[in-house]
Amino acid sequence: PPGASAARGVSQGKVTAPMASPHAGNAPPGVDPEAFSWFQTVDADHSGFISVKELKQALVNNNWSSFNDETCLLMINMFDKTRSGRIDVYGFSALLRFIQQWRSLFQQYDRDQSGSISFSELQQAFSQMGYNLSPQFSQLLLARYAQRSPNPSIQLDRFIHICMQLQSLTDAFREKDTALVGNVRLSYEDFLTMVVTRML
């Protein structure tokens, strides 16, 4: 698929420009030439923008599965300054840096270097990130986000998705929990508003 060779570079923890582009030297100001070259490869329809579909075709997990649609959409929305559902070369360059940071964190928590995050690794990751979450909650996340198998684990795309949602919902909770006691009283509509404004 388009961008597959570029995706190999990302899955191995670095971004590579798989094909020499005649325009690679003409990267816009503030955009790394390597990121610009990769942008041109991923932009399969040469529109000057990356869509969710193009991003999904370019990004892979350590097990070579494509990033899921929800995570790609979440990341596109994060870097889409025009609210058009796609990103330009500046947004793409920022997104690559963002993925690299999450990949580094993922590799740090993947203690057995299996390429995925197990239940115990997820618990340790939450603890190190400052979340005080029960084993039951981690199990719930595994049931919701892991591929079905005897030993369920979380791939990079789902790890990014979970962490982004946790951070967003934690920020929403803290807006209500001004005394930082860990409990809030919410009306049903306040709860729905909190979730809807921070979810896809």
UniProtKB/TrEMBL annotation:
The lineage of its organism: Eukaryota, Metazoa, Chordata, Craniata, Vertebrata. SMART domains: EFh. One of its GO terms (biological process) is COPII vesicle coating. GO terms for cellular component: endoplasmic reticulum; ER to Golgi transport vesicle membrane. CDD domains: EFh_PEF_peflin. GO terms for molecular function: calcium ion binding; calcium-dependent protein binding. It is found in: Cytoplasmic vesicle, COPII-coated vesicle membrane; Endoplasmic reticulum. It comes from the Eukaryota. Residues 1-28 are annotated as: Disordered. InterPro entries: EF-hand-dom_pair, EF_Hand_1_Ca_BS, EF_hand_dom, Peflin/Sorcin_CaBP. It comes from Regulus satrapa. Coiled coil: none annotated. This is Peflin. Keywords: Calcium, Cytoplasm, Cytoplasmic vesicle, Endoplasmic reticulum, Membrane, Metal-binding, Repeat. It holds the Pfam family EF-hand_6. Residues 30-65, 97-132 form the EF-hand domain. It is a peripheral membrane protein.
